[in-house]
Every structure is written in C-alpha cells, then in structure tokens.
Here is the input.
Amino acid sequence: MRNSFVGAAVERREDLRFLRGRGEYVDDLAPRGLLHAVILRSAVAHGRLRAIDFSAALEIPGVHAVITAKDMPGGPPIIPMRLQPLPDFKPYEQPVIAADKVRYVGEPVAVVLADSPAIGEDALEAITVDIEALPAVTTRAAATKGDSLLFGPNSGNVALTFRAACGDAAAAFERAPYRRRESFRTQRHFGLTMEPRGLLAEWDAARGVLRVFGAAKVLFFNRRILAKQIGLPEEAIDMVENDVGGGFGARGEFYPEDFLIPFAARHIGRPVKWIEDRRENLMAMNHAREAEAEIEIACARDGTILGLRGHTYTDMGAYMRTNGAVGSRNVAQFMSGPYRIPNIDVDVTLFMTNKTPVGTYRGPGRFETDFFRERLFDMVAKDLGIDRVDFRRRNLVAESEMPYAIATINPFESKDQFDSGDYQITLDRCLTEFGWDEKSKLQGRLIDGRYHGIALGCFIEGGAAGPKESARLALNGDGSVTVYMGSSAVGQGVETVFAQIAADALEIPMDRIREVLHGSTAHVSDGYGAYHSRSVVMGGSALLDAAEKFRSAIRVAAANRLGCDAAAVKLGEETVSGPDGRSLKLAELAGISAEGAFLNKKHTYTYGAHAAHVTVDPKTGRVQVIDYVAVEDVGRIINPKTLKGQVIGSLVQGLGGAFMEHLVYDDQGQLLTGSLMDYLLPTASDFPNLRSVTLEMKPSPINPLGAKGAGEGGIIAAGGVMANAVANALASLGVEPRELPLSPPRVWALVNAAK
Amino acid sequence: MTTRFDVNGKPVEVTVEPRMTLADCLRHVLRLTGTHVGCEHGVCGACTVLVDGEAVRSCLMLAVQADGRQVTTVEGLSHDDDLTPLQKSFRKRHALQCGFCTPGMITTAHALLTEEPDCDADRVREVLSGNICRCTGYISIVEAVLDARSAYRKPGGGAA
Here is the structure.
C-alpha cells in the first residue's frame, strides 16, 4: 500500500482529548501526600542579601519547611548554558537560588513547602528578608558606565561582544557612492505561554529514583544538568512530559525551579508541586527581544548593496541563561536576512542589567534584526529613488548561488549557509496574492480620517538544529505500532505529524499507529527535543531511519518463521508472507522494535515574503491591519492544516510584538507590567484579516524528507513590515518609526512631532 | 464552609475555605481538571465555565458563591462516544494547538451560540476577545464557531 498521509490536511489526534477537557497538564496531577511549593522572590532589583528570617512562617499550621541557599551544601548549584556555552559567560550564569546577592525582581530567595498554595502564600507574608539595596542597572548607558557592577570587580557588566563578518566591509564602505546610518530599537517582550510553568517531583527513596513531571522541550539535556546538580546518576531520574500549554522557546529551558522542586521533594521525602502564577510568570520566565542597533549600509547608485556594518546591543537581564545568547547571536548573524550582502561587519554586545534574564522567543533575534534591516531598506530605497520592491528584488540571494554562505560569527567560528530556495518565487507570489499594484494606489492617501499605507518584507527562517534526533518503533500485540520520539510536544501537533510520517514509511493505515509517545526520557535512549524548528526535520528523518530498520527486523523475524530468505518476505498491512504464499499475522511478531536516528550539522532555511496594508488614525495613533499576506516555501509540507496554524499563530504573536507587548521597567528595576491588564496580548478582535500561502517549491537537500523547519516564519517579518506600513501611510508627514512597539501613544507622538 | 451546587447535572457538596475560588474547587476538590487556570485575575478566560447557563470566569468567583447554582464545565459539554458539533468544528478548522485555552473557548462559544445562534463574525470576535489564545491567532477559532452555528439553531430556524 502506498500512502500519502504526508501532505494531507489530517485532523489532529491530540484534539480528541483537548476538546473534551481530557488533556493532562502538570497541574492536573495530584499524587497522594502532595505538598505545594511557593517561591519567595526578591522584591529588590539589586542588593546584598543579608538575612532571611522565616521562623514565623514555620509557625503557620500547614507549613512544612522553608528552603534557602543554606540548605544546599557547597552553595546553590549554577545553571550551565545549553547553547553557546562560552567560557566568557561563566561568571554570569545563574545560581538556582540567591545566596548573597539578588540581581532582579523575581529572583528566587526561598521556597515554602505547605499543604496548599494558599497556605504557602500566607507563609511568604511571614518571611522577613533583609536586603541592602544597591543601585539598579536598568539601561545600556548605566551598564556600560559600570558604576554599579552586578558581578563584582572581576566581571564587568558587559558579558561578551560577538562579531558577524564576511568580505571586507571597511573597503566596501570606503568606495561606496551612497551610505546611510540609522539607529533602531526593539522592546523587551517574551514568549508568554497560556499555561504557566509548573513542575511536580517525586522522590522514591526505596528505589533511589526521582521522577519529574512537567518537563518540556529539552528533557534529556535538562536531566543531565539535574543529575549533576543533585548528585544522582542520569538513569535514576525520569523526566516526564505531560501535555504542554505552549512553548515558544521560553518554556522547558532549565530554570531555577527545575532544580528547586526536585531538590525540595528529596529534601522533604514527599511529592512536591509548584505551579507558577501569572505574576511570577511575567517576572520569572525568560524575557527576550530588547535590542538596539546603530547600523550603516553602503550601496551602489543602482541599489546594489555593497556592505552593512555597525553595532548592536542586547539587554541580557541579570544572568546568562541556558539559551540566552541565541537571540543576540542571531541579531548580528542574520541581519542580512535573505539578501546578498558581500561585505558585513556587525557586532553585538551583550550587557547585563537588573532585569529578568533573557532567553529565546520564537524567531529569536530574527524579529529584531528584520525590523532593523527592513526599516533601513525602505529609507534607502526612498533616498536612491528606487522602488522598494525592486530594491529588494535586486538584492535577494539567487537560486544559482545556493548553498549560500552567510556571515561567520565569532567567537565560536560559527559558519552557516542557506540550503536551497528561489527567493524571487515567494516575493512574486506574495505581491500577486496581496494585489500590490492595485493597493499601491492607496499608499499615503488620507481617506475618512485615516492614512493608508502598504509595505513588504522578505525573510528567512532557520530550522533543524543538530546534532541528532532519535526515534523508535515497536510492534504491539495486536499488530499495531507504537512510535517513540526524542522530540518534544509543546502544542504544535507532533503526535499527528509523526503518525503521518510513520504510516507512510511503514505503508500502513494511520489508525494502525496506536500511539506516538514523545519527549519523556523513558521512551528512547536519547533525545534532543523541540527548539529551532527542528522536530519535523530531525525527528521525522530519524523516524524514516527507524522505519527502515523496523521493516528489516520484521523481514528477518518472518523469514525465520517462514523458512525463507529475508529479502523474499513481503510486508502487508496486517500480515507478512513468504514466496510460497504462506503468511503470518504481524501480531505474531509482537515485540519487534527498532531504533533510528538522524544526524545533521546543517540548518534548513525556509524563506518567504510578507505584504501588508494598514490604516493609521492620526488623531489616536491607532493602526489597523486591513490586509496581511504571508507567503513562505517550507520545502515539503507534512500537514497543511497544522502548518497554516503555525504561520497565522506566529504572525499574530509578531503583530503583538509590533503593536502591544512590552515588559516595562522603572529606573529602580521594578517590573511595571506584572499582570495581563498591563502586558497586552492580541485578542480575537485585533487582527481579523490575515492570509497565509505555504508552498513546497524547493525541498531541502539536507534531509530525506526534504522538509524545512517552519512555524517561526510568521513572526519574523511582522515588526519590520508593520513599521514600514506605518511609515508609508504617514509619508506625507515625514514620519519614520525607529522603535517598537507601535502603540497608539507612540504613533500619536510621532505624528505630532512631525507636525 | 459547606456548600451545595450542581456540576454537570449532578449535585455535589463540598467543604471549602471561604477564600477558595470556584476554579480551584472544580479542579482540585472535584478533580474536574478540564477547566484551566491561566491568570487568576479574570483576563485570559481559560477558566470560563457556565453558571446557570452564563459564561463566568471561575477564577473570579468563590466556590461558596456557587451555592444553589448549576455549574457546567467543558466535561459537561462533552460525550464519551463522539465530539459534539462545536468540538468537531474546532477540530476541522484546527482551532486549537496546545489545548490550554480550548476549554474556555468551548464554554464561551457554547454560551454565545446558545443565546445567539445567528451571530455574525464581528459578534463572535467581540465575545471571544475575552479569551486569550497564544497559539492559533484566533482566525480558525472564529471560523469554527461560525461553522457550528447551524447545530445551535432550533429546527425550523430562528434563534433559540
């Protein structure tokens, strides 16, 4: 049977439980003897921790223990970086709990274990923390001035400067007939998940086994860290993935709580659960996106880009977290986007402040740097008198240049290249779908009190981070197959897409894939999880390898039973048969299992273009999106339904970043946006007019599926396209947005400043 | 305090602290974990349940306030054998990803369609704007709710 589940809009398996309230998220678990952890967090942004008095808390009935750094022999463990673990970052890594200093509002100071979260919160009120406040560092200027050092005299407030370079930028700028220098800024916001973080840990003292529920994203990596920190062999720790209410890069990294909760369970000898509340979530989950750019471009008079150089700066918050450097690295390395820029010299300086530490958020660094670049491009096209579509078209990397090497980043000597693509295709398709020529007639016009503007932008999206992924297939007693994956689910539908891939590879109906089990450390020997849009490419390719081995194993076992050559065994949907016509039911071979893997050091690059039409009300500063078209080529589509869901969903997150989401701090380092009344998220009435077109024109040559990582594309271009559309609408006033978000007050201020 | 109310058609009696929210009571006392808690300050809508047929944020209501009332959760709007027409529309339109906001979307949409089975897209958007979804971008949710309208119309047409 030849299947074609891959490519079909298969309805999701996950939905059957989610729609009926039968999902199982970590807070749904309630083992016997459960205690609840509540975390006391620093209310001071920067200070010396002198004393913690929790004697009154222990008097409260139902309070069982209060844990502080003093309970950890040898001091609190340090959380190591997962990605770009450079020695330069070591001094800035975070201890799991504050011992002598606090460095941001929200840093864990003590953990209360109580019979209920409510009693635990009562106990927080009874704890006295003596902190000697130090001057808070909240801006780049204060960080680089260095009057107040976060990490003492031996480590400055600047952790590192990465440099992305190719060609000879200095020479290119020297001979360039045209240059322009600009400054831009993106605001701090983050990958807020609807389900706050949570963990449940159980210590089985008799067996010496620690079980951690609520683990997500990179379970095997987190197990390695935890094993080392808590002094157990890795095999003594089970990390269990439950249903996960959204990831977006932020959830599932190793946070302080990922040590504190297992430690607490072992300490007290009872199961301990911690569920983050929303206020905690806003101050404790990784922040992202706070970046500034001072960049310069050099062009020939015909619009050919000759060079790009400059400095960028990223606010890392108080510590270097597990994947904290990724966004910064990407700001520099991917500033050129899908364009051919032969000479690049862009650096990025990572500085520390007394704010929540940062990590990745979907499209890390790319959202920021695409805003910088696409904004600059529209200014340049106007200067040179070149149509902005033509300017981009002239500079897009051509298919004939693939694989195309981009700027190398140092330190790390990280080289990268685009795998495949014809970037003109998605640009053309986007303009056609959008109706660019027709809508161009509206640009800048004032109709019924609103200015109309249109804009476009092109982007690339990286995917398929290596080095490896694992998959295992097992034949069940009823002849059905169970799929075990090292990839993790964060809500993106991996159970369905892996069932599609497995059914096609095994040439069986999809309902014979009984279950797709993923993430948890018990399922496969090793797993690398869900980040950098890697699950389909890495996990899917590992699954193809496992399927091949699984079919071979069935042939060999059947050949033994049928007394024939393995190569002569024919595999059917429910039976296997030999050349003499004798056959066996697959169920008779139950127990056969095969593990596969996929190794890969290269990245896939999805690419595309966005175009949008907005109106701006100059009296209120309100921007409305009238039409938005997102086109991308993902190489090979596994499930068009889930892919479209990823594109539109990430696009709306991008529009949230363009217009509303903003984590605001005051000069004392206090977070001013500590609730969803203050931290604004897009709602159902904000962006009703969005369209997406997904193509599979140019498969990736670096994996057997031909697939490319997808799901971040929607977010990456959104900031730049929206800012350019607003600039285009307000061109008659000379408004040039250089900063996000384009909130009504900011747009209103730009309009009024221009008048 | 002891309080009595109906949950999904069955009478329950619980003894809870006066400060316990209805959401926590449903989830942790009655173990109906389909109702989710996303913000505990009435903004995200994940905890929406029906109280006497009206969509209510169970994180902003105390359990003791439910005394004598009819409470319906997502479990009460579901069947073992098959999805309901509203749930089928959600699945067909891919109106959910991580599933965390979904129970609140289902209860909110059910309340809307029961009252206004002929509502238009703008009305659906207006009502759903009190429920935050971080995954889908909402377009598919609005389509799913519009698709499900026919199942809520009384035979012979007209609003219920």
Summary: Chain A is about 25% helix and 25% strand. The longest strand of chain A covers residues 450-463. The two ends of chain A are 69 Å apart (CA to CA). Chain A touches chain B through 57 residues (CB under 8 Å).
